[in-house]
Amino acid sequence: MAEPPSTAQSPAETVNWEEVQDSPDFAHLRHALRSFIFPVTVAFLVWYFTYVLCAAFARDFMNIKVIGEFNIGLIFGLLQFVTTFLIALFYARHMNSKFDPEADKLRDEIEGVA
Amino acid sequence: MFVQLATTTDTAAAVADSDSGHQVITISLFLTFVAITLGITIWASRQNRTAADFYAGGRSFTGMQNGFAIGGDYMSAASFLGIAGLIALYGYDGFLYSIGFLVAWLVALLLVAELMRNTGKFTMADVLSFRMRQRPVRTAASISTVVVSIFYLLAQMVGAGELVSLLLGISSQAAKNLVIAGVGLLMIIYVVFGGMKGTTWVQIIKAVLLMTGAGIMTVWVLAKYGFNPSELLNAAAGASGKGEAFLEPGLRYGVESADATKTLLSKLDFISLAMALVLGTAGLPHILIRFYTVPSSKAARKSVLWAIALIGTFYLMTLALGFGAAALVGHEAITKQSAGGNSAAPQLAEALGGVGTTTGAIMLAVIAAVAFATILAVVAGLTLASSSSLAHDLYANVIRRGKVTTDKQEVRVGRISAVVIGAVSIALAIPAQSLNVAFLVAIAFAIAASANLPVILYSLFWKRFNTRGATWGIYGGLISALVLLIFSPNVSGGAVNATTGKAASLFSDPSIDFHWFPLNNPGLISIPLGFLFAFIGTVTSKEFNKAKWAEMEVRSLTGAHAEKAVSH
Hints:
The structure holds two protein chains of two kinds.
Chain A (H helix, E strand, L loop, with lengths): L9 H4 L3 H6 L1 H34 L1 H4 L2 E3 L2 E2 H40 L3
Antiparallel strand pairs in A: 1-2
Helix pairs in contact in A: 3-5
Chain B lengths: L20 H25 L5 H6 L6 H12 L2 H14 L1 H28 L4 H5 L5 H35 L4 H52 L4 H12 L19 H21 L4 H4 L8 H32 L2 H7 L6 H10 L4 H42 L7 H23 L7 H25 L5 H20 L36 H17 L6 H13 L10
Helix pairs in contact in B: 1-8, 1-15, 3-8, 3-12, 4-5, 4-12, 4-15, 5-10, 5-12, 5-20, 7-8, 7-15, 7-16, 7-17, 7-18, 8-12, 8-15, 8-16, 9-12, 10-17, 10-19, 12-14, 14-15, 15-16, 17-18, 17-19, 18-19
């Protein structure tokens, strides 16, 4: 039915991928990834669209001056930069400590590294 | 990248009328950049031995190098000139663009970059077709790659013609055509000889130049206001003629008027734009293939982190440049040069050095040369993305059904494709000069978000996803975005300018009006439609390749048997 995918390599064909996919180790790895990226993605998209909606529909709120010439709109916008930087760093830390060691272990097992 | 580099055609009334001394400096600086990058291209051409060298730079760039190259690919002349210009003319609303473009990188970082690096080889279609029937999915992905890239290419090339007339005072049509052909020829040379390796170095150099140029101007502007940003804002609001409203949302997007329906539509259009901005980036083919140039998924992660740092810093600097131009150049002087504000950044450079002085001329020349360098780096990346998809997806896997075996053959086809893409875009860009750059870029982003992103996410995360889902998603998203654009005010029936009597549309004659879709940006409708078509296609087909799904999921997460770096 399926034509041979061009990405297939000969060593990859000898691996029993389904067995790995069904293993508890892999389920744990998948959970370590998804339990982080899905909620965080929802969070930053909600935060971003809250900003967009405020810029469109809550102008009086955005126009309130806070410090000097800086109003809430400007500060809200700058905070989007701050949260983007922080989420990126937070993600890198999570992956380095929680994800990479498990992923590397599984990869070595699959590739047959002693 | 974009915004509204050429929303106006009156840009020929150039900056240059004040002083032509900077033109010599601009041209010499630009020729120096071309000479250096061609040298690199020749050096890189000697290293291009395998297909992985040509398409993916041997996968041997470091995370930091690739981060700079991504920055070089993403921050185009239009984002440098366009966003600075928008802020200079409309104040706060220009800032909204910067935010969307930056937050978009979190989608790429968290959901796409690493998993794609682990499963793909050279193109976006490698990932989409991994567990599907190869030919239909690769054909669809290749079509959407080429469509997105060509629209983006046209935007850049038309922008290049505008820039030259703006900065060098050349206004004849023949000269503009020559510039477009020249840009096209250079990008073909970069890609044909340098491949991904040469192109990447061109982008790295450009990113360093752009960050340095913008950095110097930012510090200079802030220094004029005692490093107190509040003083700068105050001066900008004062000089803008709009007062406090200049620092508040609403001058350009979601404009409020007496007509409640019009106000609501304007606000919905703004939300639609914000959606396309944040979801488009992770579906841009020329950005996606950059993840293949590094040795591992960890290096791909590092490159996106670098890219976020660079792009974020750059957009913060455009705030200072835009408000600086508003304060130091002034609304009237900017609109006199270009109604869209594209000349704001170069004008600011001249103003900082002192209009009419040697320092002013040098500053203007340096910033103009940086803007040219910027265009070249971006068009090279786009040409590479579309030619690798033509060669690797359409030719090698669809036409030859995966029977292209030698690397030599694949590289040769890649080079031929680059020449074809380059020639086609020169041929299209010359008559396209009357098109609005913002319109061209809106198409590119809307299609990327509607046709590419839904299927990328489904193929990486949704077990059930299959061939019909992928093809319906790509074609459905692509066609919805295009149809909505054709029947939008971009093409016909736009707002009529009271003084010129012309509509702000592709058809400027107000009597031609066949629009029924009220928004300029189709994202609000076409992005959900892309997801919906892919979903319906999937659930109406029984196809499910369990073995390939297992291989794909395990490989994407663990990096097992991922493509390795080439060692020479």
